[in-house]
Amino acid sequence: MADSGKKNWAVSDEAMDGVQRITRVTLHDAVLNQLRDMIIEGKLAPGTRINEGPVGASLGVSRTPLREAIKTLASEGLVEILPAKGAIVRRFSEKDIRDILDVLKTLEQLAARLTCAHASDAEIAEIADLHQQMLRLYADRNRLAYFKLNQEIHAAIVRASGNSALTQVHEQLQARIKRVRFIGNELPERWAGAVAEHEEMNLALLARDGEKLSEVLGRHLDKTLDRVRDAI
Amino acid sequence: MADSGKKNWAVSDEAMDGVQRITRVTLHDAVLNQLRDMIIEGKLAPGTRINEGPVGASLGVSRTPLREAIKTLASEGLVEILPAKGAIVRRFSEKDIRDILDVLKTLEQLAARLTCAHASDAEIAEIADLHQQMLRLYADRNRLAYFKLNQEIHAAIVRASGNSALTQVHEQLQARIKRVRFIGNELPERWAGAVAEHEEMNLALLARDGEKLSEVLGRHLDKTLDRVRDAI
DNA sequence: ATCAGGGTTGTGGTATGCAGAATACAGTTT
DNA sequence: AAACTGTATTCTGCATACCACAACCCTGAT
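Predict the joint structure of the above. Result:
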């Protein structure tokens, strides 16, 4: 299945090591990411219609790539497409959020066991490092940066599982509730509680105690619903 | 969140009960489903390039909806898009399959508990009915129909959980390995084993024994990897 | 054999046109 | 005034034409 090309390269593979592939970003991708961010950040509120004309114009893009991006967003569950009416930013009910959190919980618990069992020391150290950074952001009460790093930690734990299907699905569901999750967590005591749970998570991770990590993550996500409930 | 329109209808809601909404299928959707089926059924083999020109022509569709459908397929993980090169049907390695099955197992086990706890008797009866139909197809050695019903049973168990995020994610992952799963299961003894497991599943479901159902599903999916291994 | 050019193909993107559905906006009736 | 109806307008869904440019293919020269 691997690349079986046997070319003799003028430049050795060794020499090309740290070189990062140049990434041609298609307009489709750019628009997709832009729109996704706008939804998550709330610049496009739930219920908002995505009008191809104006939106495309404001992004400086023709209808074609815009429409492609919208279809992709629909398949990711961030917008709904009503035939002949267009796309509207999806609105999540409390049950939707609960359902998503239930699945996320299960996924992260699976990831917890896999990561503790298989991840490299380097990966774990990196997550622990993220955790330390996050603590500093908490000390500074830098909510936005804290939030982003928080999401990144969860994503990193899942990624370290080495299961790409798991990573992708987790990312998809995480994206759906990012918005509401950010709005929640506003009260100081809730925030403090979340940080305490993360501290537990970090210890379990460093000890490679999958069961413990799974248990803490479960609690963490159970409480998340309470934390965000009034943000819906 | 429900429709809060307070119009006075000339026709009462009662009278409009059994009326099924007319569904306009956009070309985008039609093409999407068609292509997905073609990939799952193997008419588009892994590695095949989806050439916009010919494919569009053979489907009798212009590039516009075709390209939209391709982007959606990419987001579903069924094709890969290489910028400036086009889309190729994704090829799954054994590790990919294993990863997906691991996630599917976790998801179905979650569904098992939810369904046994919350599903209506009618839903469970319907699944049991599907099971009986499947047994008849097994008796007839009707592999294709058996396979489809088999997939439908798994999907129905998940759907009965009432968790739509779970349902959607499950469907997405299921679609990715449908193909390889169909090719597997060819040897009679494997087939018989799968049927036996389904029999257990059915009993657990009727007894609403979530733990038992979860355990059987776990075994079932663990064995699935063996069943399909040589089909990769 | 490797490499450099040159033609071909196909994608990514834009612009445009058009049928038909949705919506908004009347005008009419009761 | 409220409800209905017909019309105008907007916007989507889709097709088509067109272009730049990257990728591929082939051939010829070193």
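Residues 1-9 of chain B have pLDDT under 50 and may be disordered.
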